[in-house]
Write a structure and sequence with these properties.
The structure is a single chain. This protein is an alpha/beta fold and 204 residues long. It has a domain of 133 residues: P-loop containing nucleotide triphosphate hydrolases (Rossmann fold, 3-Layer(aba) Sandwich). A five-stranded parallel β-sheet has the order 2-7-1-8-9, sandwiched between helices. The longest helix is centred in the last third of the chain and has 16 residues. The two termini are 26 Å apart. It binds guanosine-5'-monophosphate (5GP).
């Protein structure tokens, strides 16, 4: 069986990733999502185990010690990490898995898995980024300012990615991601078994 592919998706806070993912996974339930373990407090509307597992710092540090994470980062004082086991399991089952990380996490995964395809989600403009960050109404002015600062430095590192998807129109952005995943499935390295399958059944 051919192995599944890893798709690293990063984009600044305020790029609209959450809405985009909701539409994407509804449309394509065959694409798996890597649930991160994080130590920040749950926001209103977030559900345990949906996008994140909300854990204590102690538990996170245990996971680190036991080498259970593929990558991790500290973002505004909280740990965010990608558990290794579900990613490895998906690849082995031939499933495509999408991993949401920040730009540092993307770099760590690229180093460990050079075959991973990386996608940067770009907000359409500075003005829209600011509107989305302030409009959430779930965070203090200070946190919004910090997120704005982080977001701008992440955008400056979009050059490290294979693809950029502008999230202006949700459905178009979702279709762009699906196309990237579809075309990667057609790459030679994803279909080596197909060649042997045909050559080994040549009739004499
Ligand atoms: P938020 O607090 O807005 O949900 O996420 C803050 C930042 O952490 C975002 O840039 C998000 O993409 C990133 N992030 C989410 N999960 C992970 C993870 O598992 N690892 C890393 N390195 N970053 C993550």
């Amino acid at each position: 069986m051919n192995k599944g592919g890893v798709f690293i998706v990063a984009g600044p806070s305020g790029s609209g990733k959450d809405t985009l993912f909701k539409v994407l996974f509804k449309k394509r339930p065959d694409i798996k999502f890597s649930i991160s373990s994080i130590t920040r407090a749950m926001r209103v509307g977030e559900v345990e185990g949906e996008k994140y597992n909300f854990i204590t710092r102690e538990k996170f540090e245990d996971m680190l010690k036991n080498d259970e994470l593929l990558e991790y980062n500290v973002y505004i004082g909280n740990y965010y990490g990608t558990p290794k086991a579900p990613v490895v399991a998906a690849i082995e089952k031939g499933e495509d898995i999408l991993i949401e990380v920040d730009v540092n996490g993307a770099k760590s995964i690229r180093e460990k898995m050079p075959e991973a395809v990386s996608i940067f989600i770009m907000p359409p403009s500075y003005k829209e980024l600011k509107r989305r960050l302030s409009g959430r109404g779930t965070e203090s002015e200070e946190v919004i300012e910090k997120r704005m600062h982080e977001s701008l430095s992440e955008i400056a590192r979009a050059t490290e990615f294979d693809y950029i998807v502008v999230n202006d129109n949700i459905n178009e952005a979702v279709d762009d991601i699906i196309e990237i995943i579809q075309s990667s499935r057609l790459m030679l390295k994803r279909q080596k078994n197909l060649i042997d399958g045909v050559l080994n059944n040549v009739e004499s």
